[in-house]
Amino acid sequence: MEQFIDFLSKDIARKFSKSKLEGGFRYQNEHIELLIVIPETYPPALLSKLEKFVSNSSSNVKGELEQHNLYRCCPAIERIEIANSLQNKGLFSAIVSELLKVDFVQYVCIQRVGNPHLLNHLTHSKKWNWILSRSSTIGIDSIYPYCKSSPEMYRSLLVTINEYLELCTTTNFLEQFKLDLANSCENIRKISVEKNKITGIPGLEGIPELAGMAKVRLSERSIKYNMSEEEFLFKLALNTFYTTEESFLSSE
Question: Based on the domain organization, do 48 and 160 belong to the same domain?
Fold first, then answer.
């Protein structure tokens, strides 16, 4: 089994290294279905680098980004389905490890994670860090009740936010990021001590019917996976992660 996992993960990395990542890289057989794409948002250090590069580049921005492999240096795992016979055997870790060994890869992301078990693992792993998006910052006030009951998670969130604020210095991202954070913090300030339960779903506040359905599904899924609604919503709002070779290969 170990030899097969080693072969499979190396084959994925080898074929990925030859892909331009335009439209995504797909690897599929009877054992695994994997889709790797350009990430929707980036780790703070890379985001800062990209914004500075774009502001200083010529009109052929896309061509220059491709030339410097800045599109491919941060592959994002968008979808991964592993056959039951290979689950919990280390295949996912082997794939990430081999991707990080590709010469132009600096980061590996996994985005829009919906599986609560994987979310729980990534959230508590020292090998993985959150990537914040605009939707993450807008939803901070909604996930704050859970933050209050989980100091460790709250400290991790603050560290992540500070990292973005320190590294992302260009106007486009930083100003919007600060604005979203300010709005969320103002909403947090307004939350009364008595309100410790979810009052809405981010993005659905203006559509009561959909919000109601979403709350029912949220409740069902949180019960199914033995989580509080606050915990499930918290992790669903922060469901994109990244790692580096140094972080991933270090011991927990």
Answer: no
The model's pTM: 0.75
Residues sharing a CB contact under 8 Å with residue 160, sequence separation 6 or more, in sequence order = 129, 130, 132
Are 104 and 30 in the same domain? yes
Over residues 157-200, the pLDDT tens digits come to 778 877 877 776 665 666 666 666 666 655 555 543 333 343 44
163 and 242 together in one domain: no
CATH number, residue 6: 3.40.630
Give domain status of residue 205, yes or no. Answer: no
9 with 36, same domain: the answer is yes
The β-bridge relationship of strands 32-37 and 25-28 is: antiparallel
Residue type, 159: V
Per the prediction, the chain carries an average pLDDT of: 74
Average pLDDT, integer, range 10-38:
92
Angle at the Cα of 147 (from 144 to 153), degrees rounded to 5? Answer: 140
Alpha carbons within 13 angstroms on the beta-carbon side of residue 216 total: 5
List Cβ neighbours of 16 (8 Å cut-off, separation of 6 or more): 25, 27, 36, 75, 99, 102
Q: Is 226 helix (H, G, I), strand (E, B) or coil?
A: coil
127 plus 245 within the same structural domain: yes
8-state DSSP, 192: -
